[in-house]
Amino acid sequence: MVLPQSVLVVGSGGREHALIRALLSSPAKPRVICAPGNAGIAQDVPCVPVGIDDIPGLVALAQREKIEFVVVGPEVPLALGLVDELTKLGLPAYGPKADGARLEASKIFTKQILLKYKIPTAAAAFFREVAPALAYLKTRPIPIVIKADGLAAGKGVTLPPLSPRPRPPCATCSAASSAPAAARFSSRIASTARKRRSSWSSRAATT
Known about the structure:
The protein is an alpha/beta fold and 207 residues long. It is 34% helix and 16% strand. The chain folds into 2 domains: 6-102, Rossmann fold; 106-193, 2-Layer Sandwich (Dna Ligase, domain 1). A 4-stranded parallel beta sheet has the order 2-1-3-4, sandwiched between helices.
């Protein structure tokens, strides 16, 4: 097996830095660059200021630098189809294509898959507006989990207080989901019931 001699790592966090350190320790001793990177990563490899959501820019960078392998860390470029575009050009990449990345990019899509194929998960309902969501909440026992659909950088889940009923989180999710960045995916809200699992010591939210 021929190992790549030039690698582009996409991302700017600790995860990407760890990947870079692993690549640098490879027996192949590849040339590694990162986009966009950060100050810490820049101490180990060259960083190029191309944003993770700039798919044409990342593709052009890979071509210009004669990259043989691309490692994609963040969810955003995966959901936007970076691997799809690289594959069209014959550039190998580590990460799912956009259709596979939907499992991470859309909580509603993933929940629908779980429900359709009877994969154990909590009950759920999906809403585009606050009023129907509030009506649904009145029919469900609490506690309950409220999620904004789309990528939310780890901030898309709300565990509202047991009382009063969670109107503010619904309104917050609705407003956040209508923002331009989130609108690339969906502007819906998922209300997911929390349930007990015998293997868990306490109630936990299922996703």
